[in-house]
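Could someone model adenosine monophosphate with this protein?
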Amino acid sequence: MKKVIFSGIQPSAQSPHIGNYLGALRQWVELQKNYQAYYCVVDLHAITVPQEKKKLNDSIYATYAMLLAIGIDPNMSNIFVQSHVRQHTELTWILNCFTHLGELNRMTQFKEKSAKQTKIVSAGLYDYPVLMAVDILLYHTNIIPVGEDQVQHIELTRDIADRFNNAYGEVFTLPTARIVKETARIMSLSDPKNKMSKSDANLNATVFLTDKPDVIRKKIMSAVTDSKKSIEFDKKRLGLYNLLGIYKAVTGESEKEIENHFSGKGYKEFKSELAEALIEIIKPMQQKYTTYIADKTTLEIYMRQNAHKAAIVAEQTVRRVKEKLGFII
Ligand code: AMP
Ligand code: TRP
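Reply:
Sure, complex below.
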């Protein structure tokens, strides 16, 4: 039996950026070959903050199409939309009753996101980590490929699962996060102290997978660095270190090889080679994306087929949980 991996991404009007891609999505493509993979566009998570109807609808298609474009194979992996599998909401209610307020109060993502909300902070935003725990636990997930920011949520998932198992007997598998250390935190191009983010107000901070070659060149050339000359891996030189990390992840070369290659050269050469390397990996994705997004009927067929398959596994888990609780099933 293959081990199970699960991961999720929020639908967003902005396409994923190279931080999402190098930190998480690229691993999704690689891992699908050796694992039973579930990849989920988490629209129920998206509505924990205010959304516009049309934008959200477009975003779900766009995110799904982009996952296919980067190489997720809908016949090999189960790639589905969260709200199509009702068991996610059902089990969330149940596991809410096994989650402590104190645990949710400690979640840093909640603290950050609620501080940013100008109007209301919904109960859904507070409960976000429980829905995420359910995503993971429904499919007996062993491994979750994510970026560093999600580790706290996964620890909570383990705690909830363990608490339920101890009280009622083994139902849930305890999952582990899989972090690729080197790319777990790709930083902003304009402020390398902060991580690259979809919602950055500064458009030069982030390279999106839908950016055209000229835009990528412009953003990389204007990335913040320092006044030193040499191109070297030096953690203290935040901006350069981040760019070199991206270069390394994209080319697969070692740090030594990269330093040798750029010895005697300056920022201009380095940045332009980095831009071209990025364009080269992004271009084929964009071509595929254009084809997928133009055919919503096919996207919907994949969505429905995979949701149907996911629901079979999810329903078994929910039934076991209900039975353990003493519900009449
Ligand atoms: P999100 O866009 O927040 O739904 O994130 C999708 C995935 O990308 C999650 O696994 C995140 O941990 C990961 N991720 C987001 N931003 C970054 C970043 N700057 N560097 C590395 N991984 C990231
Ligand atoms: N919270 C994750 C993020 O913001 C998205 C997500 C939802 C997820 N459910 C998940 C990630 C389950 C991994 C596993 O990136």
